[in-house]
Design goal:
Elements: E1 4-8, H1 15-20, E2 24-26, E3 29-32, E4 35-38, H2 45-53, E5 59-61, H3 65-77, E6 82-86, H4 94-104, E7 114-118, H5 123-138, H6 143-156, E8 157-162, H7 166-171, H8 177-185, E9 188-193, E10 201-207, H9 209-224, E11 233-238, H10 242-256, E12 260-265, H11 268-274, E13 279-284
Parallel strand pairs: 1-2, 1-6, 6-7, 11-12
Antiparallel strand pairs: 3-4, 3-5, 8-9, 8-13, 9-10, 11-13
Helix pairs in contact: 3-4, 5-6
Amino acid sequence: MAVKILSDSACDLPKEILKEYDIDTIPILLSKDGKEYLDGVTLKPEKMYEDMRNGQVYQTAQIPPYVFEEKFTEIAKNKESTIYICFSSGLSGTYNTSVLVKESLKDKYPDLDIDIVDSKSASVGFGLLVYQAAKMAKAGKSKKEILNMLDFYVKHIEHIFTVDDLEYLFRGGRVSRAQAVVGGLLNIKPILDIPEDGTLRPVEKVRGRNKVLKRMLEIMEERGGSADLKNQTIGINHGDDIEGALKLKEMIEEKYGCTDFVLNIIGCAIGAHSGPGTLSVFFLNESPSQE
């Protein structure tokens, strides 16, 4: 029996990939004006971004313990060998909750076969881990082989992204009100990343959209120049800005000769914090010894 790959909606993979590789995802919760939503299920990102442009604010919440209990119980009863790859513990409490629930079920289901992996990643950076694991599972690779691959990806996946409006990072507590106001006046576009501890980190500030895209490609070369970028699967996603994402993809194709991309809109769980107009690129900074 193939290894089952379980994830959550913050992986932001396209529906086609989720379906083709039978990837099961648990939706993250959001709320607005006292009403709860499920990421990608009862709230689509396009609707959320439209609301955000109109000044509405969405908040996110981690997956409740009872949801994990129901899913892990199902896995135990079906006797499925499973890997749950989850949203970075540096950005969410989801990982810790899932581990606690797994421990709580040990007595009732001693044969529960589930390994929980902290992706230390977000969005399609996280999604590339899930995608690679699912491809390996479909090819009949063992759980040990998949876990070894995931360990490598967690250590070497790069996230480079920029936001179009600092106001959304201010609402999430990532920048001050003064920084948001000044950034808007001066057309400052911050470049951020997610380091190995899985948290959010500002890298640089650049003025203007075209300059920030060019600088993102330079950082990509600085960090991934020795990692055979041409033959990697490159992740790109966007906060309801497909034109910007396609432009970034074209620039990467021209500069590095890359041909394999995962491109998708940023889902509600991430987009509620990054906002409309966000652009991201994800890649490995070192080539694995074998795929």
